[in-house]
C-alpha cells in the first residue's frame, strides 16, 4: 500500500514537472511576441498618442482617413528639429572652412562678416539669418563655392570626423534627437517617404543624412546654388557656385518642397527658434488629405538648451492652427543618441 502511494506521488510530481516544462516555452513565446514600442524614447502623453493615432488612421485601408502610400510624404526641418542647433552645425563648418582659407586672405581680419567669424562670433550669423541672411549667405558662398561637389563632400566628412560639440564634447552626429530618429523610422515602416527640408546647405546635409537619419541624399531639400558641369584637367565634374543662390527657409520651404517632390506633405516637423518652419507647417496643413504638424519647443535647459522666439510666432501659430507641440522637457524620455 505504502509503495503504491509513493508511486502515485512520484507520478504526480513527474506530470507536474512535465506540465511546467511545456508551459515555459509558451510563456516565453508570449513574451517574445509582445509588441515593442516604436517610439520608446518618447514619454507617454497626448503628443505621442496623437502621432500613433494619426499613423494608425491613415494606414487603415477602407478607413475614412486612409492615405495611399504614394501620398505619404513627411518633411522635416533639420537644425533644432532632428539634431541640436546650439550651435548651428553648418555655421561651425563655415567657421572651420573660413579659418582654413584665411591664411590666403589677411584682409578678412578687418572685413565683416569674416572678422566676426574668425573671432568666433557665430551668433552674429544666427541673428543675421533671422533677418534676411545676407551676411550668412556671404559666408556660405565663400566657404562652400568654387570647388567640385566631390571636394566639398570630402571637406564636410573631414569636418565631421574630427569636430566635437563645444559643450557636450561628442561628435555632432551623436547629437541627433533619438525621439525624432525613432519617428522617422516609424513613419518609413508605415509607408512614408521621409525628407529633410531645411535652410541648411543641401550638399552639406546630404553628406551625413543617410547614416544619421536614414534619409537618402536624394530626399534632402536645402539651400543651394547653381552647380556647373565642366571639364577640369581632362575630368568632367560638377562645381559648386554661388550663382542663383536659393535660400530654403520660411516662405520658400513650400517652394522647395514643390520643386523637389511635387506633392504636399501630410506630415511636417519643425521647431521654435526663428519662425523658419511656419511656412512648411502651414503648407502641410493646407493639404486636403489628413495631415499632422509637429513643432519642437526647446524648453529643457538641463538636458539640452532652452530658447524661444521674441514674438513667440511659431507657438502662437501652433495654438491658432491646432498643431502638435513637442515640449522636450516633458515629451522626450531621452534626447540624444549618445544618452
From TrEMBL:
InterPro entries: HAD-like_sf (IPR036412), HAD_sf (IPR023214). Keywords: Hydrolase, Signal. Residues 1-21 form the signal peptide. It comes from the Bacteria. One of its GO terms (molecular function) is hydrolase activity. Transmembrane segments: none annotated. Gene3D superfamilies: HAD superfamily/HAD-like. This is Haloacid dehalogenase-like hydrolase. It comes from Aureliella helgolandensis. The lineage of its organism: Bacteria, Pseudomonadati, Planctomycetota, Planctomycetia, Pirellulales.
Amino acid at each position: 500500500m505504502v509503495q503504491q502511494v509513493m508511486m502515485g506521488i512520484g507520478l504526480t510530481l513527474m506530470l507536474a514537472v512535465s506540465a511546467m516544462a511545456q508551459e515555459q516555452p509558451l510563456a516565453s513565446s508570449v513574451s517574445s511576441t509582445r509588441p515593442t514600442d516604436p517610439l520608446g524614447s518618447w514619454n507617454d502623453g497626448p503628443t505621442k498618442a496623437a502621432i500613433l493615432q494619426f499613423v494608425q488612421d491613415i494606414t487603415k485601408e477602407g478607413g475614412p482617413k486612409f492615405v495611399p502610400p504614394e501620398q505619404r510624404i513627411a518633411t522635416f526641418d533639420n537644425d533644432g528639429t532632428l539634431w541640436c542647433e546650439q550651435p548651428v552645425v553648418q555655421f561651425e563648418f563655415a567657421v572651420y572652412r573660413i579659418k582654413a582659407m584665411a591664411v590666403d586672405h589677411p584682409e578678412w581680419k578687418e572685413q565683416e562678416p569674416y572678422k566676426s567669424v574668425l573671432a568666433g562670433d557665430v551668433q552674429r550669423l544666427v541673428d543675421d539669418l533671422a533677418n534676411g541672411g545676407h551676411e550668412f549667405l556671404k559666408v556660405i558662398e565663400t566657404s562652400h563655392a568654387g570647388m567640385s561637389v566631390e571636394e566639398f563632400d570630402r571637406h564636410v566628412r573631414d569636418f565631421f570626423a574630427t569636430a566635437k560639440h563645444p559643450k557636450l564634447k561628442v561628435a555632432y552626429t551623436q547629437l541627433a534627437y533619438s525621439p525624432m530618429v525613432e519617428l522617422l523610422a516609424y513613419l518609413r515602416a508605415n509607408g512614408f517617404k521621409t525628407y529633410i527640408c531645411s535652410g541648411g546647405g543641401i550638399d552639406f546635409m546630404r553628406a551625413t543624412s543617410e547614416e544619421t537619419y536614414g534619409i537618402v541624399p536624394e530626399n534632402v531639400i536645402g539651400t543651394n546654388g547653381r552647380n556647373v558641369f565642366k571639364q577640369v584637367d581632362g575630368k568632367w565634374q560638377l562645381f559648386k557656385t554661388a550663382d542663383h543662390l536659393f535660400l530654403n527657409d520660411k516662405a520658400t520651404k513650400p517652394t522647395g518642397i514643390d520643386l523637389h517632390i511635387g506633392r504636399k506633405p501630410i506630415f511636417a516637423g519643425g521647431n521654435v527658434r526663428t519662425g523658419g518652419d511656419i511656412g512648411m507647417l502651414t503648407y502641410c496643413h493646407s493639404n486636403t488629405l489628413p495631415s499632422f504638424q509637429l513643432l519642437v519647443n526647446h524648453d529643457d535647459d538641463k538636458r539640452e538648451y532652452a530658447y524661444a522666439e521674441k514674438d513667440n510666432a511659431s507657438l502662437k501659430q501652433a495654438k491658432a492652427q491646432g498643431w502638435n507641440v513637442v515640449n522636450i522637457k516633458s515629451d522626450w524620455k531621452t534626447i540624444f543618441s549618445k544618452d
